[in-house]
Structure formats: structure tokens, C-alpha cells
């Protein structure tokens, strides 16, 4: 199969990347990050999450961030809304697109959101109805698609069943997440073969963590399967609090470098992107997780 000529990156750093940071990050720093990502040419930025601050304290200021960012025409500013209350808060903040989150693993679903997979999908029904009423797009996530910290390997057929449900409920796109980063290129291709038989491939996205250093290889494998949307995180921010050793999302800078080398259009300015990553890494007081940024910044 020929590679896609264009790829859309979904930047998840401001939400998925920062949500597990222990140190408080100011609204000003979050706004600066989102604006820098917009300026670098990203067309989709997941800005925050409308969840209880008790569960995810770092996302408590999401409404303020949405109020202060400079919204660029043609850029989607999304948010995670795990329940109807979260959806209503997102709507009040002027969010035009939300995301919902299910797991391909029963054990992960129970430990992460205290309910079964089927129960979690049922909870999304009122969100989908409200979104339709208000003209809000909904993106779906499926976690643990290539492995679970509690169950081990996950059958692609199980992932396909969950992805099919989300698509049937009205999610315009379903992102398949390798939450603990154990996936390999062969397993990734098999996953998209199986899920792609149930959900059109142009409605699927890949979300890879780099725990085992396989994320870029898995993205290339996905490109070979005709996938043209990928989630990534500036400076490789983020991880999974429930997944032992999960080092974080693949760095957006590294994905753009890969795609540039393949002649695939992204509309993203790599140098501006590196600058945005170095800025937020400075705020966090640690080196960037992007290998490309480290190499460009060496010496």
C-alpha cells in the first residue's frame, strides 16, 4: 500500500501530556503552550479535560485556558469530556469538539474508571445525544489496544468490538492507543487489519507511547496500513499513571521529522515546534523527551 500524501497530527500534550504532572502548572504557561502549538501549524490541539479536579487536579483550570488562548481559524481546540457534567462544562467554555475514552481491557476499565467496558459505553449515550443536539463533534479513544498492564496481550478482535461501538454511537474518528507502549510494528499492522475490517480506515487514528522505543516504528507500520491521523505530544510529555514504566506519548517533533523525511505533508513548522517543546520543558524543569529536539539543541 502506498503511503498517505498528507497526515493530520492531533496534539495531546496540553491535556494527556500535562495531566499527570505533580507540580502545578499555571494557566499562563498552559495558554502559552497552546498558542505556541497553534503558531507552529498544528491543526488539532487537545487543550484540556473537564473532569473532577479531585481526580485530575492538573486539569482544574481548563475553562480558564480555553478563555485565554488565541484561537486561530482552521484549528480545532478539543477537550476530554468523560461524562455529561464534563460535556456541559466544556460547552460552557466554548469547546467545539470533545473526546470520550473507553478501554479495550476489562481490567483496565475497572481500575481506571470503575466500570466495565459495556457500562462505560452506556455512559457515553447521553453525551452523544447532547453533542448531536448542540452540533459538537465527538472523537473516541480506545486504550490498551496492544497490551494491558493487568491482562497482558489484548486480542485485536476485542479492540475492534469497542472501536465499532464508538463509531456506531457517532464518534467521527476513533483513536487506538497503545497505552503501555508494548506494541510492535507487526502487531500494529495486524491491529489495523482487524479493526479496519469493522471501522473504515479513514476513521481510525493511532496513539502510540514510546515506553519500549517502538512508537515511531509503529507509526510507520500504521502508515503502511493507510492510517493518516496520529496523536502525539509535544516534547514527549505524558505517561499513564496506571501503567508501570509508561514513559510517555511519542514526541510530536519526532513524528514530524519522520513524516518530513517521507515527503508527507503536515503543515507543521518543525523549528517552531521544537521551540514550543523546549519552552514547556523549561517550565517543567527537565530536558525535552524529543530526540529530534535534543539532537538539534546539542552543543
TrEMBL record:
<comment type="similarity">
    <text>Belongs to the HMG-CoA lyase family.</text>
</comment>
<dbReference type="InterPro" id="IPR043594">
    <property type="entry name" value="HMGL"/>
</dbReference>
<dbReference type="InterPro" id="IPR013785">
    <property type="entry name" value="Aldolase_TIM"/>
</dbReference>
<dbReference type="GO" id="GO:0006552">
    <property type="term" value="P:L-leucine catabolic process"/>
</dbReference>
<protein>
    <recommendedName>
        <fullName>hydroxymethylglutaryl-CoA lyase</fullName>
        <ecNumber>4.1.3.4</ecNumber>
    </recommendedName>
</protein>
<dbReference type="GO" id="GO:0046951">
    <property type="term" value="P:ketone body biosynthetic process"/>
</dbReference>
<dbReference type="InterPro" id="IPR000891">
    <property type="entry name" value="PYR_CT"/>
</dbReference>
<dbReference type="GO" id="GO:0004419">
    <property type="term" value="F:hydroxymethylglutaryl-CoA lyase activity"/>
</dbReference>
<keyword id="KW-0456">Lyase</keyword>
<feature type="domain" description="Pyruvate carboxyltransferase">
    <location>
        <begin position="7"/>
        <end position="274"/>
    </location>
</feature>
<dbReference type="GO" id="GO:0046872">
    <property type="term" value="F:metal ion binding"/>
</dbReference>
<comment type="pathway">
    <text>Metabolic intermediate metabolism; (S)-3-hydroxy-3-methylglutaryl-CoA degradation; acetoacetate from (S)-3-hydroxy-3-methylglutaryl-CoA: step 1/1.</text>
</comment>
<keyword id="KW-0479">Metal-binding</keyword>
<dbReference type="Pfam" id="PF00682">
    <property type="entry name" value="HMGL-like"/>
</dbReference>
Amino acid at each position: 500500500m502506498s503511503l498517505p500524501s498528507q497526515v493530520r497530527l492531533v496534539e495531546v500534550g496540553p491535556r494527556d501530556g500535562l495531566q499527570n504532572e505533580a507540580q502545578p502548572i499555571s494557566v499562563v504557561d498552559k495558554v502559552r503552550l497552546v498558542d505556541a502549538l497553534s503558531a507552529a501549524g498544528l491543526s488539532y490541539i487537545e487543550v484540556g479535560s473537564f473532569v473532577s479536579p479531585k481526580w485530575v487536579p492538573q486539569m482544574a483550570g481548563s475553562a480558564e485556558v480555553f478563555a485565554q488562548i488565541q484561537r486561530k481559524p482552521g484549528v480545532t481546540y478539543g477537550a476530554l469530556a468523560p461524562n455529561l457534567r464534563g460535556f456541559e462544562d466544556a460547552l460552557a467554555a466554548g469547546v467545539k469538539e470533545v473526546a470520550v475514552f473507553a478501554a479495550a481491557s476489562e481490567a483496565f476499565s475497572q481500575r481506571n474508571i470503575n466500570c466495565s467496558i459495556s457500562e462505560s459505553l452506556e455512559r457515553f449515550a447521553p453525551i452523544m445525544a447532547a453533542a448531536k443536539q448542540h452540533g459538537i463533534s465527538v472523537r473516541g479513544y480506545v486504550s490498551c489496544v496492544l497490551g494491558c498492564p493487568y491482562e497482558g496481550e489484548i486480542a485485536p478482535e476485542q479492540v475492534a468490538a469497542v472501536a465499532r461501538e464508538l463509531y456506531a454511537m457517532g464518534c467521527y474518528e476513533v483513536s487506538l492507543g497503545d497505552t503501555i507502549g508494548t506494541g510492535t510494528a507487526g502487531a500494529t499492522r495486524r491491529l489495523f487489519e482487524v479493526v479496519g475490517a469493522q471501522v473504515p480506515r479513514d476513521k481510525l487514528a493511532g496513539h502510540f507511547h514510546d515506553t519500549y522505543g517502538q512508537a515511531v516504528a509503529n507509526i510507520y507500520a500504521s502508515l503502511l496500513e493507510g492510517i493518516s491521523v496520529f496523536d502525539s505530544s509535544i516534547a514527549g510529555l505524558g505517561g499513564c499513571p496506571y501503567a508501570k514504566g509508561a514513559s510517555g506519548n511519542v514526541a510530536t517533533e519526532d513524528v514530524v521529522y519522520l513524516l518530513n523525511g517521507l515527503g508527507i505533508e503536515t503543515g507543521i513548522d518543525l523549528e517552531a515546534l521544537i521551540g514550543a517543546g523546549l519552552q514547556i520543558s523549561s517550565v517543567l524543569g527537565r530536558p525535552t523527551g524529543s530526540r529530534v529536539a535534543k539532537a538539534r539543541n546539542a552543543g
